[in-house]
Amino acid sequence: MKHTRFSTMLFATAFVCSLAAATMIPAFAQSKQARNPGSDHGEQDFPMSWKRYYAYTEWTRIMQDLQTKYSHLADIQSIGKSRMGRDQYLLTITSKATGKAGTKPAMWVDGAIHGNEVNGITCSLYLAWYLLTRYDYDPSVHDLVDRTTFYILPGLNVDANDSYVRFPNTENNPREPYRPVDDDGDGLYDEDQSEDVDGDGDLSTMYIEDPAGDFKLSPDMRRFVRVDDPRERVKRFRRIGSEGFDNDGDGMINEDDIGGPDPNRNFPYGWSLESGYPYPMSESETRNVFEFQMAHPNIFAAFNYHNTGRLIMFQVPPASRPPAGQTPEARQRAADALNQRLTELRKTNKYAYLADRQVAPEYQQDLDVQNDIVSMGARILKDYTPTPGGLAGQAAASSYYMLGAYSYLIELWGSPSGEADLNNDSQVSDEEYIKWIDTELMGEGWISPHAFKHPDLGEIWIGGTARKHVGRTPPARYIETEALRNANFVLYCAGQFPRVEIAEIRVVPATDDLYWVEALVKNDRSFPTSSDMAVALKRAVMDRVTVAVSSNVTMLEIPPAKTMIDPLNRAAEADVVAKQGSEFRLKARDAKRFCALVRMKGAEGWVEFTVTSKAGGTAVRRVALKLQ
Ligand SMILES: [Ca+2]
Ligand SMILES: [Ca+2]
Ligand SMILES: [Ca+2]
Ligand SMILES: [Ca+2]
Ligand SMILES: [Zn+2]
C-alpha cells in the first residue's frame, strides 16, 4: 500500500459526489418559465381584480377556486368556526410533489384579526395568489413553494371582517370578535349599536346646533373645527358622536355597541384581564389560531397584518438588565456606540436598522437576525419603519415568546403620510388630508357636513369625516402596490429560512489505512436553524450530522473534540463526529467543520455525511476512497 499523501488526496477529492436529497426534483417542471419582467408571470391563468375589497363569501370563494385550480400546490381547511358560525379558512401552500407540508419549515400569515383591518385580508390573499399563479413561471417562487410551507389565514376575525366590508362603518369599527357584552349594564346586550342615520351608505359623525358648543363649520363648510376664541360670534355645534339612533329609548345613543375583548390582547403571552377579558384564548377566533400553531411546530416565522401606520413591528428578545453597577455614563457610551454603528451602516444602506436594546448573550443572535431582516423589510416596503413590537396578549408575542417563531406585525398603509404632509412638519392636518383626497382621489372619500332630520334629536348635521377605505385601509387604487410589496417581504423572509448544505468534503490520509474525512457544513441564510428563543424554550430540535461508510470501511470512535486534521491549514479545525451522530446548531450565515476517522480495508470504499436540520432540510454528500 504505497502511496504518496498528495496523490491520494487529489484522487479522493476527485471522486466526491453529492446526492440530491436537499434539491428534490419537482414533479411539475417549469414549462412556462418567464424571466422577462415585462412579461406575464401566470397572472392571466387566474385573473383577479385587486381593485376592490371582497366580502367574506367572495374572498373565501376565491380561496376555494385557487385551491381547486392549484390543487397540487394548495389545500384548504377550516381551522374552526367564529362565534357567529363562520368558517375560518386557511390555505396551506407548498408543492405536494416535494414533501408533505408538515415536514417543511413554514411561514404563518394572517390578516385582519381586527375586524376593520381588511387590507390584511387583501395582502394575505394576494400572497396566496402570487405564490400559486407564479409557481410555473417564476424560478424563485417555484423554489420557495418547493421548500417551504405557507399557512395563510386571510381573515382571522371573520364576523367583524364581513360586516366591515358589507355595511356602513367608520374606519375603526367593527374591530373585536362578537362576544356579547353589556356595555351600559342595563341587562341587555348590544342593544344600541351605531347605524347609518341618513342612509348614504357611510357612518359619519353627528353634530347638533348648540350655543354652548365648541365646534363651528370651517370656512369651506367641509368640516367641523374647534372654536378658538370663546368670544367669537358664530353658529356653534356640539359633537354627538357616531351616527345612530336611541334604539332602546334610554335617552342615550350607541351606548351598547357590538364587540368583546381586543382579539390581539387575547393571546396568552403578556395577557391581562383589562383588554383581553374574560380569559386568555376566550374567543374561538383566536383560540383556533393558537391551537393550530401549537399543533404545527414547523412554523418558523409568522406575519400578522394590521393597520395602520406603515410599521414593521417585530418581536425582540427580552432586554437584559444593565450589569450591576453600570453607571449612567456607561449606558450612554453603549447608546453612543449603537448610534455610531448605525451611522456607519447607513453610509451604504439608508434602510439599515438597529434596535436600541441590549440582550443577554444567549439571545444576541435573535436580535442580530431581527435587525437584519427588518432592515431588508424597510428596503422592500420603502416607507415603513421598523420598531420593536408589543407584548401584552398579542399574537406576535405568543408566536415568539411561547413558540419560538420569529414574528412580525405589519401595520399596513396609514393616513397618506409623506405625500400629504405639504408643510413637512411630519403631521397630516385635516386641511392637508382633504387636499390629499381632492388631489389623489378626485374628491372621492370625504363626507361633507349636511343637515338631516333625526327622529330622536331633531335637526342635526352629519359629516366632516372621511369615508371607509381612505385612512386605515387604502383606496382600491392603491391596494395592489401595497399588497405586492408586502408579498415581497414575506417571500424574502421565507427565502432566508435556513438551508443546510455540505459545501465541501475531503479526505486527508492519516497513517497506514486510516483516513480523516472532513466536511464543511453551511447555512448561508439570514435565519439560523432554530431561534435562540426556541432553544431557551426547549422547543428547538438540534441539527444532526451522521456518517455512513461502505462495508469495507469502519468508522473509528474517538473522543469528541476539536481536531486539527491538516497541520498546514491552521483554520481547518473540525469537530469529531460521534459514531451514533453528533448534534449541533447552525446559526445565521454559519459554517462548521466535522470530521471522522475511518479505516479502509481494500482498495475502494466511500464515506457519506448526512446533515439533517428540522428547518434547514437535509444534505447528503459522499466521498469515494480509492487507493492507487
Ligand atoms: Ca346594554
Ligand atoms: Ca355591547
Ligand atoms: Ca350616514
Ligand atoms: Ca340607547
Ligand atoms: Zn390591528
Number of strands: 27
Low-pLDDT segments: 1-27
State the secondary-structure class: alpha+beta
Q: On the 0-100 scale, what is the average pLDDT?
A: 93
Q: How helix-rich are the residues, as a percent range? A: 10-25%
Small molecules held by this entry: calcium ion, zinc ion
End-to-end Cα distance? 8 Å
Outline: elongated
- How large is the count of helical segments? 13
Describe this structure in words.
The chain is elongated. Strands 2-3-5-4-10-13-11-12 form an 8-stranded mixed β-sheet, with helices on both faces. By secondary structure, the protein is α+β, with helices and mostly antiparallel strands. It has 13 helices and 27 strands. The structure holds calcium ion (CA) (4 copies) and zinc ion. Zinc ion binds next to loops. The site of one calcium ion has 8 residues, from loops.
